[in-house]
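yo, Germin-like protein is done. seq:
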Amino acid sequence: MAKHIILLMSLVTLSFGLLAFAFEPSPLQDFCVADSTSSARVNGQPCKNPALVQASDFSFSGLHLPGNTSNPNGSKVTPVSVAQLPGLNTLGISMVRIDYAPWGINPPHTHPRATEILTVLEGSLQVGFVTSNPDNSLITKTLQKGDVFVFPVGLVHFQRNVGTGNAVAIAALSSQNPGVITIANAVFGSKPGISSDILAKAFQVDKSVVYQLQAKF
Ligand SMILES: *[C@@H]1O[C@H](CO)[C@@H](O)[C@H](O)[C@H]1NC(C)=O
Ligand SMILES: *[C@@H]1O[C@H](CO)[C@@H](O)[C@H](O)[C@H]1NC(C)=O
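structure:
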C-alpha cells in the first residue's frame, strides 16, 4: 500500500515538473541580467556578472511615446522584451505598447511562447482570438478604456481600432521573448515561398489568388 502511495506521489510530482517545464523555468537566483556581449549559446541569454549589474539593466524608458502608425496595418507595436530590457532574462515576463490609427489593425498573429493580457488606455478596440481545431470558435469583444482582455498562449488573435480617434493599449506577456508569428506573413510571405500547389489546395482557391497574395510581401 505504502509503495503504491509513493509511486502515485512520484507520478504526481513528475507531472507537475513536466507542466512547469512547458513554460519558462523558475529562476534559480535573484536575477540573470542578459549579457548581450557573450558568445555563449544557451536557452535564453547568459548572465552578466552580478557584480557589474546596475539599475539601468532593469529599466527601459520611452513607453509614453506614441509609435508611428503610418504603415499599411495602421498600428505599431513597441516591445519591451529581453532585447530592450536585459533584466527580463529568465523572468518569464515582458510588455508592449500598441498604438492604433483610426481603423488600424494589429493583424492576426500568435505568440508561440506567451499568454497576453491587454488593457486599453485610450480609445476603443475590437479584439478576438480563435480556438484551435476542430471548433475554430471566434471569441471576440469590443473593449473600452480600462477594459482588460486575455489572449491564451499560442492562439491566433488580433485587435482593431473601432473608435473615432487613435487608440493605445498596453499588454503584458508571459515570456521574456514571446515571439510573433504573423499569419499572413508566415503563410504568404515566407522566403522562399511555400509552393503555390500547397497553398492553392490548403485555401481551396485558384493558384492566381495565391500568386496575388504572395506578391504583397
Ligand atoms: C512615420 O513613418 C512614415 C513611413 O515610414 C514616415 O514617412 C514618417 O516620417 C514617420 N513619421 C514620424 C513622425 O517619424
Ligand atoms: C503588419 O504588422 C505585422 C506585425 O507587426 C507585420 O509583421 C507586417 O509586416 C505588417 N504588415 C504590413 C502590410 O505592414
